[in-house]
Design brief:
Distance between the termini: 26 Å
Domain Cytochrome oxidase subunit II copper A binding: 107-219
Largest sheet: 7 strands, mixed
Biased composition (Low complexity): 305-318
Number of helices: 7
Order of helices and strands: HHEEEEEEEEEEEEHEHEHHHEE
Region (Disordered): 298-364
InterPro entries: CcO_II (IPR045187), CcO_II-like_C (IPR002429), COX_ARM (IPR010514), Cupredoxin (IPR008972), CuRO_UO_II (IPR034227), Cyt_c_oxidase_su2_TM_dom (IPR011759), Cyt_c_oxidase_su2_TM_sf (IPR036257), Cyt_o_ubiquinol_oxidase_su2 (IPR006333)
Membrane topology: Multi-pass membrane protein
Structural class: alpha+beta
Helix content: 25-40%
Length: 364
């Protein structure tokens, strides 16, 4: 019933969509059920007063009703679906707090990075420098920007009172924009079966006023420990009924390492592997290109001219930066994926250091 009585604007719009779709379909279903029962009673064998026309086979008026009514319903449902698909796209930033209030121009969304583990939830607050396990909080009427991934198997992040479910997949990042409009404690869980501990993969989401949220953050910082790579690798191991945990600090690049599947020290990141593939694969030519990119990165600020670019076997000159798509976004031409690297230096960017992993996203 919480789906039909939500506390967030996105979930409210989804509830309204369910109601509108159901009513439109009932406009056909109810008359059909009524007429089925009516015909069975009206033309029963014992009713000799009913018309008997064994040669009847066509009625233009009846054909118009039979075809036009469902067609009108389909057109209406199609229009509603088209509009809501774009308006409620989880990747689309919010344009309102609720039906009566737009988002103020100076409002900064709360960023939360979500990691589905076996079988628990890990939440990073990168702007606040904290992290939690199996507990999530946000201030009322403040947009929330969720970035969602998983460490092993696919899960589904779902807070029914806040918004619809969004999948969490290893090596990929999905997005969800939402806002909570009422204070309270709400249930969150995985809506996708993921193994033995799935039934207990639950957490509490707290909608708080700004003062209460600030107090919650202070509590996390006071009671929490440090979440570094070693602590994460222990936390990542499968466990059930994990208690709430607070972390007063977390390694700045830990979420990106989880996203790129290289939290284990010495493991190559998915973004680095994709970059090698983009440059031609793992052969001799790619190694030469990689060496050149490393040389460019380390000496770009020193004014040293890089060696001549290696020419691949195809005859095309090697590139020292990610390929640009036609719309100007780097590496956007891969079906079903987009490489987001805002806030991260891509290999060959001339940042004077080793390449940082890019974020691999799946627009699910």
């Amino acid at each position: 019933m919480v789906v039909m009585s939500p506390s967030g604007d996105i979930a409210t719009q989804q509830r309204d969509l369910i109601i509108v779709s159901t009513v439109l379909m009932l406009l056909i279903i109810i008359p059909v059920i009524f007429l089925t029962l009516f015909f069975a009673w009206r033309y029963r064998r014992s009713n000799t007063a009913a018309d008997y026309a064994p040669e009847w086979h066509h009625s233009t008026r009846l054909e118009i009703v039979i075809w036009s009514a469902p067609l009108a319903i389909i057109i209406a449902l199609g229009a509603v679906t088209w509009i809501s698909t774009h308006k409620l796209d989880p990747y689309r930033p919010l344009d309102r707090i609720d039906a009566d209030r737009a988002i103020p121009a100076d409002t900064k969304p709360l960023t939360v990075e979500v990691v589905a583990l076996d079988w628990k939830w890990l939440f990073f607050y990168p702007d606040l420098g904290i992290a939690t396990v199996n507990e999530l909080a946000a201030p009322v009427d403040v947009p929330i920007d969720f970035k969602i991934t998983a460490s092993s198997v696919m899960n589904s992040f779902f807070i029914p009172a806040l918004a619809g479910q969004v999948y969490a997949m290893p090596g990929m990042q999905t997005r969800l924009h939402a806002v909570i409009n009422k204070e309270g404690e709400y249930d969150g869980f995985s809506a996708n079966y993921s193994g033995e501990g799935f039934s207990h993969m639950r957490f509490k989401f707290h909608g708080l006023n700004q003062q209460g949220f600030d107090a919650w953050v202070a509590q996390v910082k006071q009671r929490g420990t440090m979440l570094n790579r070693d602590a994460y690798l222990k936390l990542e191991k499968p466990s059930e009924k994990e208690p709430v945990r607070y972390y007063a600090g977390a390694d700045a690049d830990l979420y990106d390492a989880i996203l790129n599947m290289c939290a284990t020290p010495g493991k190559m990141c998915a973004s680095e592997m994709m970059h090698i593939d983009m440059m031609g694969g793992g052969g001799k030519e790619s190694e030469e290109n990689r060496e050149k990119l490393t040389y460019d990165n380390r000496h770009a600020d020193e004014g040293i001219v890089a060696p001549a670019a290696t020419v691949p076997a195809t005859g095309a000159p090697a590139r020292s930066e990610p390929a640009e798509s036609t719309d100007g976004n780097s590496m956007q031409n891969m079906p079903g994926m987009d490489m987001q690297h805002e806030g991260h230096s891509m290999p060959g960017s001339g940042n004077g250091g080793d390449p940082a992993p890019a974020q691999l996203n799946n627009n699910n």
